[in-house]
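Methods, example record. To illustrate the input and output format used throughout this study, we show the complete record for RNA-binding protein KhpA. The sequence lines were provided to the predictor; the line carrying structure tokens was produced by it.
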Amino acid sequence: MSEELISETMDDESLELDESEELVSDRIADLVEYLVVNIVDDPDGVSLEVIDGASSSTIEVTVAEGDVAKVIGRHGRTIKAIRTLARALAARLDTSVEVEVMG
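The corresponding predicted structure is encoded as:
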């Protein structure tokens, strides 16, 4: 994984958002998209939908039918790791997030 993306995404100075900047959930979605696109065989088949709620967000990841197993991983280990990274970034940005995989 690119250290530049993580440091850019988790940079303390960029945590202060104003109205002209992107939503916090979009920054988390960018991280999730980066991870998923680099796992699957068909990167063009990846799409994300961000559903913002009052206190949390849900990121629905849709991948090609043949790539669902790759994103989930053995015993769910890969998706668990993706969720852990997304939740860690969300906690750092004072929000919460759920990541769901759609086939």
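Annotations derived from this record:
Confidence is low (pLDDT under 50) at residues 12-21.
Residues 77-92 form the longest helix (16 residues).
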